[in-house]
């Protein structure tokens, strides 16, 4: 079961690793402006506002999460083939809205499938999820190397085998996984969400993902403007995810020693430092390498903490909808707003200012976490 659960993470994040570093470069190569690139990249995040809630609701009501994951993987791949028609700006936006509506449904549903499959052994989540990071690294490095020899117009064709890998992996997961259909108590979800610490959790993560808008949209363009080649860009993306893998391996020990709240606050401090270093010192390779290693904090630690919060606060009754809210309000709304705002800042003063904007957003998240965030219920106080 471990390998079946890990397999889909590998292919899903391999596709993400192919898109995040190189899709903006592909769009730039096609002649789109920075604002148009920001709008198209925001589309990837925008559907996360709606899709996970629709699919999460269906998963909670029917219990057929594996079948929904399979549907999303197949239909998402079919919709992506519209890219080969080489549509203009609005046509490409329509294609991206269609394929991401199904693609973005996969991960929130699969997170529930994985946690239910692990049962009481939730500490092993990091070891299952790290294979997603392995897939990301392999994809970023390999495609970066390929694009040194092939023009960027080949990128959509390079992505299609990764869509196939996701679909095959989805059909390898036993259908019985994720079929728990809880009796949902009316009004319970609203009562959970309106708790001050849950509101703080969502606000913190909204600002966290907003801060990543500049990174996911313009980091590759930022590095190319400084003279880095595509292979070097790929290696730097991979380095950050490698640091994330190491953290996932030891994350269960970190949770044993520190509270979730302490981990979140510490990771936010390191994330703020990361954006400031990228804004000012990207031309200095050792400093840039250090900044990329901080991806372990800005993504790895905060994602692990967030999975813990969702599982603890929303429980089995609302787990799917809680995961969907997390994905939609933070990765979706936060990511989309961050991509759009970073586009405005890049058009105005360049990529460095966009990363300074990211640091400001994290400063706001730190205030919220320090004042209102509390550790999940039932957590044993950790020695500080």
Automatic annotation (TrEMBL):
InterPro entries the record matches: HcaT-like (IPR026032), MFS_assoc_dom (IPR024989), MFS_dom (IPR020846), MFS_trans_sf (IPR036259)
Membrane topology: Multi-pass membrane protein
Subcellular location: Cell inner membrane
Transmembrane segments: 7-26, 32-56, 68-85, 91-110, 130-150, 156-175, 187-211, 231-251, 258-277, 289-311, 323-341, 353-373
Domain (Major facilitator superfamily (MFS) profile) ranges: 197-384
Segments forming a coiled coil: none
Keyword Transmembrane: yes
UniProt keyword list: Cell inner membrane, Cell membrane, Membrane, Transmembrane, Transmembrane helix, Transport
Protein name: MFS transporter
């Amino acid at each position: 079961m471990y390998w079946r659960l890990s397999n889909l993470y590998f292919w899903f994040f391999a596709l993400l690793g192919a898109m995040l570093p190189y899709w903006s470069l592909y769009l730039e190569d096609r002649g789109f402006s920075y604002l148009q690139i920001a709008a198209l990249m925001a589309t990837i995040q925008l559907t996360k506002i709606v899709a996970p809630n629709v699919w999460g609701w269906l998963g909670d009501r029917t219990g057929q999460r594996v079948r929904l994951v399979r549907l999303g993987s197949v239909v998402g791949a079919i919709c992506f083939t519209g890219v080969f028609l080489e549509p203009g700006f609005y046509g490409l936006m329509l294609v991206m809205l269609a394929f991401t509506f199904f693609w973005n449904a996969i991960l929130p549903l699969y997170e529930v499938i994985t946690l239910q499959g692990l049962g009481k052994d939730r500490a092993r989540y990091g070891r299952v999820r790290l294979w997603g990071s392995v897939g990301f690294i392999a994809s970023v490095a390999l495609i970066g190397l390929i694009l040194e020899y092939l023009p960027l117009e080949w990128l959509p064709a390079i992505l299609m085998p990764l869509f196939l890998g996701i679909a095959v992996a989805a059909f390898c997961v036993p259908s019985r996984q994720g079929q728990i259909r809880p009796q949902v108590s009316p009004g319970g979800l609203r009562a959970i969400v309106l708790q001050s610490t849950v509101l703080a959790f969502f606000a913190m993560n909204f600002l966290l993902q907003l801060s990543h808008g500049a990174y996911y949209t313009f980091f590759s363009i930022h590095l190319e403007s400084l003279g880095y080649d595509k292979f070097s860009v790929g290696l730097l993306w991979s380095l950050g995810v490698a640091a994330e893998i190491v953290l996932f391996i030891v994350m269960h020990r970190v949770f044993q020693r520190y509270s979730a709240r302490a981990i979140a606050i510490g990771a936010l401090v390191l994330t703020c430092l990361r954006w400031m270093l990228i804004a000012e010192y990207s031309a200095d390779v050792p400093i840039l390498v250090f900044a990329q290693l901080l991806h372990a904090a800005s993504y790895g630690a905060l994602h692990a903490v967030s999975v813990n919060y969702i599982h603890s606060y929303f429980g089995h009754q609302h787990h799917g909808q809680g995961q969907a809210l997390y994905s939609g309000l933070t990765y979706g709304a936060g990511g989309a707003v961050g991509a759009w705002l970073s586009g405005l800042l890049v058009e105005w003063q360049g990529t460095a200012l966009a990363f300074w904007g990211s640091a400001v957003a994290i400063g706001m998240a730190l205030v919220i976490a320090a004042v209102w965030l509390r550790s999940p219920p039932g957590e044993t106080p950790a020695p500080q």
